[in-house]
Amino acid sequence: MTEATLCFPLRGTDGVTPEEVLLIEKRRGLGEGWYNGPGGKLEAEETPRECAIRETREEVGLEVDPAALEKAAELTFRLDGDVHTVCHVYRADRFEGEPVTTPEARPEWFSVEEIPYDQMWDDDRLWLPGVLSGRTVVGEFAFEGGPPLDEADFVDHDLGWDVPITDGSTTRSRG
Ligand SMILES: COc1nc(N)nc2c1ncn2[C@H]1C[C@H](O)[C@@H](COP(=O)(O)OP(=O)(O)OP(=O)(O)O)O1
After folding, report:
1. Ligand 1 within 6 A of 36 CB?
2. For the residues 40-62, what does the mean pLDDT come to?
3. Where in the numbering of this chain does the Nudix hydrolase domain appear (predicted)?
4. Domain with 121 in it: what CATH number?
């Protein structure tokens, strides 16, 4: 089982819903060629928050303000019945720097009204709109026909909205 993060930097957050979200076109690894948030796998001894901040720095060069990093979702992705990845999802409305392309990712700002769901993981259209509107969600998603996960079929899901979510690792003692 892999533990991973996603971070969604937001612009224009004066109202309830932000105007824009920074996505990356993933240039290598799982989900290559699709849009997603910056993110990746937890390293040894790293908390999910530390991972989200590090991955956003490494993938697009933005320095997220830790005080503005808000956990929005905890998503479990199953492949052929087994837990494949637990993913901690964050919103961030304060950060420094301008996004840059790196070997891992090409960043692009999108209006929240024009997110390219047809070029993203199949599950994203089910939870990302709620996350961008400030809600919390715990979700479980079933894929079949892998590995790899990004060649499997999305077959089922279960979502719990507006629930309290913890901000620690699901498998490690440090939070
Ligand atoms: C199954 O549905 C998924 N949906 C979304 N939106 N994101 C997903 C899904 N499954 C995995 N992810 C995310 C979780 C991670 O942020 C990335 C995969 O990261 P990767 O395996 O490339 O991890 P890195 O640490 O960046 O890679 P390196 O090992 O190359 O450093 O996808």
Report:
1. yes
2. 97
3. 1-133
4. 3.90.79.10
